[in-house]
Amino acid sequence: MSANEDQEMELEALRSIYEGDESFRELSPVSFQYRIGENGDPKAFLIEISWTETYPQTPPIISMNAFFNNTISSAVKQSILAKLQEAVEVNLGTAMTYTLFEYAKDNKEQFMENHHPVNSTTSISNIISVETPNIAPSNKKKDKKEQLSKAQKRKLADKTDHKGELPRGWNWVDVVKHLSKTGSKDDE
């Protein structure tokens, strides 16, 4: 059988096996993604397998560069890819996409044992601050806080409670004083 015939047969098999499986996604007839682990699982990861023209005689391209994997350190990704590559070498010449997805599912805990979620927000903010050094100085001038004198700070502290909040009703109008000045029409 030619590589194309093998690929067509494997494609049909994958479609029938993973029909209705939310973890499986066919990106194209030669590229597939599979989420290992449940949706909210912090140790879940996504594997993408793309077939070359001569697959399965040559190894497929295995990737973990999906945005879903952005909390996984590159060392853990490399470790997973190395273990999957070993499985590829064993199965070279046969349809192996299903085998690789199942191998990853069966060994998920072992693959992710050294996983400590990377805080992606800090890396993104670092990238942003590195990329936008020209904007930062103009923002600093706007963010400058008003400086209070000691007397102003004391006055503010006297008005507020120990939490720094103004007491309830601090801005209410003294109703009695107001009514006594205006006079009530009922008194006349």
TrEMBL record:
<dbReference type="InterPro" id="IPR042770">
    <property type="entry name" value="RWDD4"/>
</dbReference>
<protein>
    <submittedName>
        <fullName>RWD domain containing 4</fullName>
    </submittedName>
</protein>
<feature type="domain" description="RWD">
    <location>
        <begin position="9"/>
        <end position="111"/>
    </location>
</feature>
<dbReference type="InterPro" id="IPR016135">
    <property type="entry name" value="UBQ-conjugating_enzyme/RWD"/>
</dbReference>
<feature type="region of interest" description="Disordered">
    <location>
        <begin position="132"/>
        <end position="167"/>
    </location>
</feature>
<dbReference type="Pfam" id="PF05773">
    <property type="entry name" value="RWD"/>
</dbReference>
<feature type="compositionally biased region" description="Basic and acidic residues">
    <location>
        <begin position="155"/>
        <end position="166"/>
    </location>
</feature>
<dbReference type="InterPro" id="IPR006575">
    <property type="entry name" value="RWD_dom"/>
</dbReference>
